[in-house]
């Protein structure tokens, strides 16, 4: 039975596991996304989420606590400057785990763990951009948009439009005279 066993030891000693999780947490904060095994990603999530919560309050005590876990001064600086601003309004769930295909060498389950607020692959902004760039069959939407835009442009004549119409009216006269001359030569 596994009553009360909440920590996955990952087949490592305590000191090795803590050092590994500290390094992985530092890499996650620096790079915003890392690829690892699923078991390590789940262990890292439990390790890094309390540190991210601690980063929301920028006090000396919270900085020292974060440093005791991460053991990297540059990572702590980035955590409290950049990451804390992004996650300020989020009540928890700062990380996301996305499963990948199994690793070729040993068939281990692989996953990507990423900070939710830093994703660039999917989200509300990316979904809207993708919807706009998708192509539809039939083209019924495209004709309506062009027809709606054309009366608006014609309804508001400006000085530039008047100049363009003056130039267009003058331009056909010169080619018409040339065409008459070419027709006479051909006949």
Short account of what is shown:
The chain is mainly alpha-helical. It is built from eight helices and three strands, in the order H-E-H-H-H-E-E-H-H-H-H.
Shape: globular
Number-wise, the strands total 3
Looking across the biggest beta sheet, what order are the strands in?
Answer: 1-3-2
Largest sheet: 3 strands, antiparallel
* H/E topology pattern: HEHHHEEHHHH
Instruction: Count up the helices.
Output: 8
Which structural category do the helix and sheet elements fall into? mainly alpha
Q: Return residue spans where pLDDT drops below 50 for at least 5 consecutive residues.
A: none
Distance between the termini: 106 Å
Overall pLDDT confidence: 81
- State Rg: 32 Å
Task: Give your account of this protein's structure.
It is a single chain. The model has no long low-confidence stretch (mean pLDDT 81). The N and C termini lie far apart (106 Å). The longest helix is centred in the first third of the chain and has 18 residues, at 14-31. The chain has a 3-stranded antiparallel sheet with strand order 1-3-2, covered by helices on one side. Helix content is 60%, strand content 9%. The chain has 187 residues and is mostly helical. It has 8 helices and 3 strands, in the order αβαααββαααα.
Kindly list the characteristics that best describe this protein.
mainly alpha, 187 residues, globular, 9% strand, 3-stranded antiparallel sheet, 8 helices
